[in-house]
Specification:
The complex is a heterodimer of chains A (279) and B (185). Chain A has 279 residues and is α/β, with parallel strands linked by helices. Chain A has 2 domains: 99 residues; 127 residues, no CATH class. Helix content of chain A is 39%, strand content 25%. In chain B, β1, α1 and β2 form a beta-alpha-beta unit. The radius of gyration of chain B is 16 Å and the shape is globular. The chains are: A alpha/beta (279), B alpha/beta (185). Chains A and B meet through α3 of A and α5 and α6 of B.
Chain lengths: 279, 185
Amino acid sequence: MREIQASDITAAVRRLCIEANDHLTKDVKDCIEHCRAQEPWAPAQEILDRIIENYNIADKNNVPVCQDTGLACVFLEIGQDVHIAGNLEDAVNEGVRRGYTDGFLRKSVVGDPLERKNTGDNTPAMIYYDIVPGDKLKITIAPKGAGSENMSRIAMLKPADGVEGVKDFIIKAVEEAGPNPCPPIVVGVGIGGTFDKAALLAKKALLRPLGEHNADAVYADLEKELLDKINALGIGPQGFGGKTTALAVNIEKFSAHIASLPVAVNINCHVARHQTEVL
Amino acid sequence: MAIRVTTPMTPEQARQLKSGDSVLLSGVIYTARDAAHKRLCELVAQGKPLPFDIKNAVIYFVGPAPAQPGQVIGSAGPTTSYRMDPYSPILIREGQTGMIGKGKRSKEVVEAMKQCGAVYFGAIGGCGALLSKCIKSAEIVAYEDLGAEAVRRLEVEDLPVTVIIDANGVNLYESGREAYLKTQK
């Protein structure tokens, strides 16, 4: 049994919140720059240039890439041979509190969904726990803005709808979202499981580095086919027309009930933030 | 070539702008999001004065990040505009002539824009670090309790925006996509 101090978790979460909001990862930048090189439409090229200029400014000045520094979505993979000294949930929330305060990040959480009073420190975080083999603790922070989150959709399809029904639903979700989620977007898809499992798979799909495909060739091909179809819609960066509507389609799947075919689409904007640290 | 516009913007000026125009906006603009819009519209309903002059005003739908030491304001890009759709027609009828945001608008908003002479500008979503450089001063004028959602008076210089929907109701989201797709046939 390896012991990890709650205070070390707080420090890591604080660091990751600031790092994720101020600096995009290389996979995302490479993907945006690749799409810029492939974009044939002049107004779209201009917007992609501004997007690149923006994340370069954020890098240089250590400021948030986007003012919507999001809900702090925190994914914990806890090794089953780890013992945490202290309260894990409190440690994570304290890290978010310090990160969002010390990092001059926007506090975008209301304590009650109906009363809608800002909590003032961006807590509580959205925390997801997975128990895995080993004696490490892997922390991934993915700040998630609401503009794209609000355009996410879920459907409980019939098995008879098949792969064609799945494709139609995903493309329709992207087309209906249009300019709202700040295209170019990243499309996270969860197929299978239950209603809630599909949604979580879609969110986890957004954590996968852009440019990496599903290990299952069938799903990797589906990702490529969907990306081509979405980029033939013509929505383009910011919805002003163009090829680059999506940067990537990432699909995660799970087994399903004999009567169910759940499909969840979790949309992310081009400020596709994720940072990981292993303790 | 970008057109330079300085606020306040009259309905006559607004009507001269066309969907697709690149505009560099300077002067005073005000920030407001959902919560502030709700309060402003409540004041209108009660016949009470608003905390700033709405006549010929441009409202930026933004909730900025906090300013770091030495900064005027933190990152400040647009939020999605449709959440303001229930409120914008009321404020346009009170004299507002411009909105800056991103994303689609309702038929009711476009009707009010056509009727009164107002335009809907788009700023690039997700470019808050870049856009904040055009903001020269920022002060809270109302609803400080709303934090990032408080109403701020901003002085901007050459803020780059695009006319998405003009006062004739012409919409770049439709025409831009159509024009691009024509080249792909």
